[in-house]
Amino acid sequence: MPAHLAPTAADEAAVRAIPLRMADAWNRGDADAFAAPFTENADFVAFEGTHLEGRAAIAAFHTRIFAEEVRGTRLEAEAKFVRFLGPEMAVLHATARVALAGQDRPSPSRDSMQLFVARKLGTEWRVEAVMNARRLSLDRQLFLDALDALPPAGRKQVEDLVAALTRPAASPARPRP
């Protein structure tokens, strides 16, 4: 690529800043700011496979989950690398970690890998597409495969055991005076 068309350090910094801006918006529960880096017709595939088409749909989806499922969570993001495909197109690989409400540290089961496609529109870098996928170790995948292979009664036993193990311990009885 000719030097006059090559992306600059400022271009790379702007692309790397995108997931950090989104994490800041997540932590404020601001769905419009979360969706702001996206183009009008962007595609966003959420961790569980939901395909959102367009900035308005991305904002609406996040408005709902910020009020419900992920309320009070904290997101940490990191840009891993940027690869420019041309002077106005880049691929960004990022990671995200989520701390559930009330937790001090991110929950490993919520770690995600993200692949962004960004395009320079005028002087601004905007997101055309994001694929957000849970990061899953091979050991965890093998465990989930084994869990899925259990008959329904066996899965129910495992679910009941996990629920019992994660339930807060009963408060000790207070001695009576």
Helix content: 25-40%
CATH fold assignment: Nuclear Transport Factor 2, Chain: A
- Largest β-sheet summary: 6 strands, mixed
State the strand order across the main sheet.
Answer: 2-1-6-5-4-3
First-to-last CA distance: 84 Å
Shape: elongated
Structural class, from helix and strand content?
alpha+beta
Number of E-type strands: 6
Domains (count):
1
Number of helices: 5
Low-confidence stretches: none
Do you know the CATH architecture? Roll
- SSE order, one letter for each helix or strand: HHEEHEEEEHH
The percent range for strand residues is 25-35%
| Structural Rg | 21 Å
CATH class assignment: Alpha Beta
Mean pLDDT: 91
Structure report:
The longest helix is centred in the N-terminal third of the chain and has 20 residues, at 9-28. 37% of the residues lie in helices and 32% in strands. It contains five helices and six strands. The protein has one domain (3-134): Nuclear Transport Factor 2, Chain: A, CATH 3.10.450.50.
Task: Give the structure's gist in a few sentences.
This protein is 37% helix and 32% strand.
Give the SSE layout.
Blueprint: H1 9-28, H2 31-35, E1 38-45, E2 51-53, H3 55-67, E3 74-86, E4 89-99, E5 112-121, E6 124-134, H4 138-149, H5 152-166
Parallel strand pairs: 1-6
Antiparallel strand pairs: 1-2, 3-4, 4-5, 5-6
